[in-house]
Design brief:
Structural class: alpha+beta
Shape: globular
Mean pLDDT: 87
Keywords: Membrane, Transmembrane, Transmembrane helix
Helix content: 10-25%
Low-confidence stretches: 1-30
Protein name: DUF3352 domain-containing protein
Oligomer: single chain
Radius of gyration: 34 Å
């Protein structure tokens, strides 16, 4: 009897234990789990969605879906989904299973080299459990997949591999949730996190925030700024990572809402400040956000800008480095004179091998005080070095050299490092700083021409969608920044960058902003595709106008500006040697009977007390200058001897003060220089070069010195000063003929200025203005008949292409010597190649066959524009219309001047 009681008692205990265990497991499975608490702390990003199908449909409605679907990671994911879908039971496919669920996706950096993802998917009903069980069984039976299971810290982990494409993933279930990832390491980390008990959510600071309850929100996006540099470090070279890491210390984390609209992506929400010592936030101590006043001076060729809007930008200097120099107090005072804005601007470059130009813009509270402090600092430096202060007049501005290493960093903190020396110029309430004087000259030209954000239709439209006031902003134009992105992208990721070029360039405008509001940063990210304007002419040319003149037109239509309102006009010459002006309205303007054919293009200069535009050009032995009525200026034309046969005209304005020099060369290689009064300049009466020039002479201003580059057809290159004397180290003998000119990247001095030339047989030679050859590279030459030339862009010559011509084939190469495209033509005669560049990827290549009289236009990708050629034998003129984002083409055919409009599709 007692034994029976003992056995009954033991049986009851066992039964009770089993019931309790079953109840506990049932209750545990019913407990709702906070998926956010499962996410490991090292997640860089976490995305939460609640309607998978709606998100996909929304993406399809925008132009993002087609672009994203083409990415390798997306196509690989879709391929795996298709395999899984093929073994799904019945008609309940994966899309239906995933629909209307709160799904998390976390992004991690694994092993400092890979990006991995974890998916957290709830299983909501008995039917969904049955679906998953059957799906698992079908996977186990399928010859596409291999499946195995293992126990890890009391969790059953299942590993599945795809035998077709080699991919694999690991998953386990926890409280009616599936945790799945291609990384078994991350899955195991989550299992350990669960076993540690009551893990804290990575988004605990945003527990009351759920943007998904609002209309038109596609996702919640959590950002971990402390891990973000590790993610970015996978794609960027280490040399830029110190700046990236410091910028990331502005905030610690954020919760943002994702909205998708046609051609736009918006992320808006709040970020929590990073309050660690020496973080960017603690150094800035931002209060009131500031407007982007600098937009009136930012050039349209801006690639990237870091903008700080603070009540005093001198705060960016914290923590300050010790400075015991004799000018330290003046530097402190100069920094104290700054106002509410500071910006570091990277300008568009044209080569992956070219360091981008950087310009610092700083708002000054009192321009007069800042000017006095600049002068004081300049004098202190000069006294310490026993040399004269250096300053140069450029138009109405004065550019000063302050030869202090890392001066912008001393004035504005660690984000502004990287300046060996600083040239400075004041423009209204802003101080501009650059490492090279040429960068400031070009920038002042952009401001004078109105080629700035404040007057750009495209930029204005973009700025309207960004915050009007902010404490920190990062603006990126992916098209202008393309070569910069290539330069600073890690070698392993550059191939993928190139593969995704169309997507990256399509959504070109990016703005990320932080604005302090009640102790938090309101955060806004806008990724935008610029307005495309007209689309009706993408498949062909739209003829807008045809002007019939009395005689055959023998020249290209030369682009000029109206002397009064600066509107676009044209000048052509007919077979009677009459120069004709065509106004912007398509009417005839002034005329000038030259009795000789033009030998140069039409140049325009501001001249005279009224500073109106005048026209300069040459004929066989005369230099002409006329006003906007076609009447010659005083003392013109200049008559050279009848034996002179002029080839080129170059116009120099050394000081940008209207004191022009006119330099011409003849067929024997003699150079003649005159001022605007007709007086011959000493040293140029003539300056004999002994061989004919291969291109128009080029003027450079380098560290206060004037350099005139002269390239000869026999391969000799001279660098001359104002008096025609040769600089030491010159001439350089390339020992091979030249058929084109040279291009220069102006540095701080002669040693750091680089000049490049391309010989007739494809040797690319780069040398300094000290006469030292720096690099040589032989381009691929398919045969002895292949000839090369350097073709500068039509507007300002700051960029160029290399053209290879060989028996009817024409190849276009970029500045990195990479072949862009090659085309075949009917005749083997040399072609006229023109390169038009209007910023970013707004490029047009024009190739003209003079024999058949046909011109072909190509876009940046080498695709034929309009699907046909144009009847034309002369160079063409092309304007870009920014508002409509299309182009206007002028060309001559017989006695007609024709105007066409066209767009360039993607």
């Amino acid at each position: 009897m007692p034994k029976r009681i003992v056995f009954l008692f033991i049986g009851f205990v066992i039964l009770a234990s089993l019931v309790f265990y079953g109840f506990s497991r049932w209750k545990g499975s019913r407990e709702k789990v906070d998926l956010w608490a499962l996410v490991p702390d090292n997640a860089a990003l976490v995305v939460e969605t609640n309607n998978h199908q709606e998100l996909v449909e929304h993406l399809r409605e925008t132009e993002l879906w087609q672009s994203l679907a083409a990415l390798p990671v997306a196509s690989h994911f879709q391929e795996n989904m298709a395999y899984l879908d093929s073994v799904s039971p019945g008609n309940q496919r994966l899309d239906r299973f995933l629909n209307e669920k709160d799904i998390l996706t976390s992004v991690h950096v694994e092993g400092k080299s890979d990006v991995t993802y974890v998916f957290y998917v709830p299983v909501s009903s008995v039917g969904e459990h049955r679906f998953l069980r059957t799906l698992t069984e079908n996977i186990n039976k399928s010859d596409v997949f291999e499946q195995s299971s293992r126990t890890y810290q009391d969790h059953l982990l299942t590993d599945i591999s795809n035998t077709r494409n080699g991919s694999s993933f690991t998953y386990f279930t926890f409280h009616n949730n599936i945790i799945l990832s291609a990384s078994p390491v991350l899955v195991e980390e989550i299992a350990r996190r669960i076993n540690r008990g009551q893990p804290r959510s990575v988004a605990a600071d945003f527990s009351n925030v759920n943007f998904l309850s609002q209309p038109d929100v596609s996702a919640n996006v959590f950002v971990n700024y402390r891990v973000l540099p590790d993610l970015l470090g996978l794609f960027l070279k280490e040399e830029v990572m110190p700046q990236v890491r410091y910028l990331s210390t502005l905030c610690q984390s954020a919760m943002l809402e994702l909205k998708l609209e046609r051609n736009r992506l918006f992320l808006n929400g709040f970020s929590l400040p990073e309050r660690l010592n020496n973080s960017l936030h603690n150094n800035m101590q931002p209060q009131k956000p500031q407007p982007l006043g600098v937009r009136a001076y930012l050039p349209n060729r801006t690639a990237m800008m870091l903008h700080f809007g603070l009540q005093g930008v001198a705060r960016l200097r914290q923590p300050q480095k010790p400075n015991k120099s004799n000018y330290a107090a003046t530097v402190d005072s100069l920094a104290g004179s700054f106002g509410q804005e500071a910006a570091l601007v990277y300008l568009e470059s044209h080569s992956i091998n070219q360091s981008p130009e950087k310009v610092v813009f700083v708002h000054t509270g009192s321009p007069a005080r800042t000017g006095r402090l600049l002068t004081k600092l300049s004098n202190q430096l000069a006294d310490a070095r026993q040399e004269e202060p250096y300053a140069e007049k450029y138009g109405n501005h004065t550019i000063q050299l302050l030869n202090v290493p890392q001066l912008p960093e001393q004035l504005l903190g660690r984000m502004f490092k990287g300046f060996e020396q600083s040239y400075m110029v004041q423009v209204d309430d802003y101080l501009l700083m650059a490492e090279e004087m040429a960068a400031l000259r070009h920038l002042l030209d952009d401001i004078a021409e109105g080629s700035v954000w404040g007057k750009s239709v495209a930029q204005k439209a973009f700025m309207e969608e960004t915050l009007q006031e902010a404490n920190f902003s990062l603006y990126l134009n992916t098209v202008n920044a393309w070569y910069i992105l290539n330069r600073y992208t890690s070698e392993g990721e550059r191939e993928e960058l190139l593969q995704n070029a169309s997507l990256i360039k399509r959504f070109a405008q990016v703005g990320l902003q932080f604005s302090m509001v009640e102790g938090r940063y309101y955060t806004s990210l806008v990724v935008r595709r610029p307005d495309q304007g007209k689309t009706g002419t993408q498949d062909g040319f739209e003829e807008e106008e045809s002007i019939t003149l009395d005689n055959r037109l023998d020249t290209q239509p030369f682009p000029v500006q109206n002397a009064v309102d600066r509107s676009r006009e044209l000048v052509v010459q007919d077979s009677a040697n009459v120069l004709l002006n065509i106004t912007a309205m398509g009417r005839r303007g002034w005329t000038d009977s030259l009795n000789a054919s033009l030998r140069s293009d039409i140049k325009q200069v501001e001249y005279g007390p009224d500073k109106k535009l005048r026209y300069l050009f040459i004929t066989a032995n005369r230099i002409h200058a006329i006003n906007n009525q076609g009447q010659p200026l005083d003392n013109f034309p200049f008559n050279l001897p009848d034996t002179v046969d002029l080839q080129h005209l170059a116009v120099f304005d050394y000081e940008k003060d209207g004191n022009y020099r006119l330099l011409v060369d003849d067929a024997l290689g003699n150079l003649y220089m005159y001022n605007m009064r007709g007086a011959a300049v000493q040293g140029w009466q003539p300056r004999r070069m002994d061989y004919r020039l291969s291109a128009e002479p080029q003027h450079l201003r380098v560290g206060g010195r004037d350099v005139i580059l002269v390239a000869l057809e026999n391969g000799y290159i001279y660098a001359l000063n104002r008096n025609g004397d040769t600089y030491p180290g010159f001439p350089i003998n390339l020992k091979v003929p030249l058929t084109s000119g040279v291009t220069a990247k102006v540095g701080a001095d002669l040693r750091r200025t680089e000049v490049s030339a391309v010989t007739k047989y494809g040797n690319v030679v780069t040398f300094s203005l000290q006469g030292r050859v720096l690099r040589q590279e032989q381009l691929l030459r398919p045969s002895k008949r292949a000839m090369f030339e350097l073709v500068p862009e039509s507007s300002n010559g700051r960029s160029y292409i290399i053209v290879r011509q060989e028996q009817g084939r024409v190849a276009i190469l970029d500045q990195d010597l990479k072949e862009l495209f090659e085309k075949n033509y009917v005749t083997s005669a040399p072609k006229i190649v023109q390169y038009f560049r209007f910023g970013g990827d707004n490029k047009v290549y024009a190739i003209t066959e003079t024999g058949p009289g046909k011109t072909y236009l190509y876009d940046a990708n080498g695709r034929l524009i309009g699907g046909r050629s144009l009847e034309n034998s002369h160079p063409v003129t092309i304007f870009h219309n920014e508002t409509a984002n299309d182009y206007t083409l002028y060309y001559t055919s017989g006695n007609q001047l024709k105007k066409l409009r066209f767009s360039v599709g993607e």
